[in-house]
Amino acid sequence: MVDAATIEKLEAGFSKLQASDSKSLLKKYLTREVFDALKNKKTSFGSTLLDCIQSGIENLDSGVGIYAPDAESYTVFADLFDPIIEDYHNGFKKTDKHPPKNWGDVETLGNLDPAGEFIVSTRVRCGRSMEGYPFNPCLTEAQYKEMEDKVSSTLSGLEGELKGTFYPLTGMSKETQQQLIDDHFLFKEGDRFLQAANACRFWPTGRGIYHNENKTFLVWCNEEDHLRIISMQMGGDLKQVYKRLVTAVNDIEKRIPFSHNDRLGFLTFCPTNLGTTVRASVHIKLPKLAADKAKLEEVASKYHLQVRGTRGEHTEAEGGVYDISNKRRMGLTEYDAVKEMYDGIAELIKIEKSL
Q1: 299 is in an annotated binding site
Q2: Annotation-wise, does 192 bind a ligand?
């Protein structure tokens, strides 16, 4: 049973949300009926509905407003997660099933910009959770340490171009810290959305950063997700970047079992990041298309691309440089998600050249 104090907080939070003009998906789908059906439920990790929705209640300007405190929450609180997932992931219904993992044939991709005229850099990342551990809000200090040990010993076994160093945030020297900031590798303690979701407890215990010598492969340990695995380099060679990621993920997976669900794919803390969890992106200069926003958006929507400013969401395109990535992560394979971005960027470059 959920204790009285939690129920009281839930009721107060629900009233606050209902009275607000919040545009979040949480407000849209947390009806009284759904609320009453879920308020007394708990996962085996002890998570309640409050753990899922507290960030969205505290931050009424959230776009989504909900996190999963553990992998089970997606099932226990499905009445709320399912419609939010369907809304965010382009109609991925509760009767739909995410396809099995398939990285496809890496060799069919190539360099999108061999002459280096348009693409500044290319990056592909995915998120993974370690099986048997809850997500941030439920982790104990001991679990954070244990996970960091597992991750650091696993990564230290990587060979070849993936070989590198693990830097724990705990006790990090000022020099190392500055170097990681200069490389844009260092992550900071979570923003107010993550803080309110209780995702930053025991900071910086259990948090760390791994990168290879070439600085083209990066792993974040216990930032928002247990693992964020990132491959990147300057220029437009998506094949190389993708191949590196695939090799790394397959290697890590042999030693660390990941949380996976037959219907939703790979599970992470945020419901926007399920299924393949893959985000493939480029920083790209499109000065002519920048002057024709309508055309840019038209091509972007045809290939399900997300167009952001240079520094991510809600920022300007500095010097006509955009951050463009695949929007779809669920209901299609890893290969298809990346291929969609590949085809869309190829099309954008073709149009830019013709203008």
Answers
A1: no
A2: no
Topology (CATH) of 4-89: Transferase Creatine Kinase; Chain A, domain 1 (1.10.135)
Q: What superfamily does domain 106-354 belong to in CATH?
A: Glutamine synthetase/guanido kinase, catalytic domain (3.30.590.10)
Position 303, amino acid? Y
Asked if 307 and 300 touch (Cβ cutoff 8 Å), the reply is yes
Mean pLDDT of the chain: 95
Contacts of 351 (CB under 8 A, 6+ apart): 289, 295, 299
DSSP state of 183: T
Q: CB atoms < 10 A from the CB of 95, how many? A: 7
| pTM more than 0.70 | yes
Q: Which residues are catalytic?
A: 125, 224, 228, 270, 272, 279, 308, 313
Judge whether 65 is annotated as a binding position: no
The stretch 259-277 carries a mean pLDDT of 97
- Residues forming beta bridges with residue 339, ordered by sequence position: none
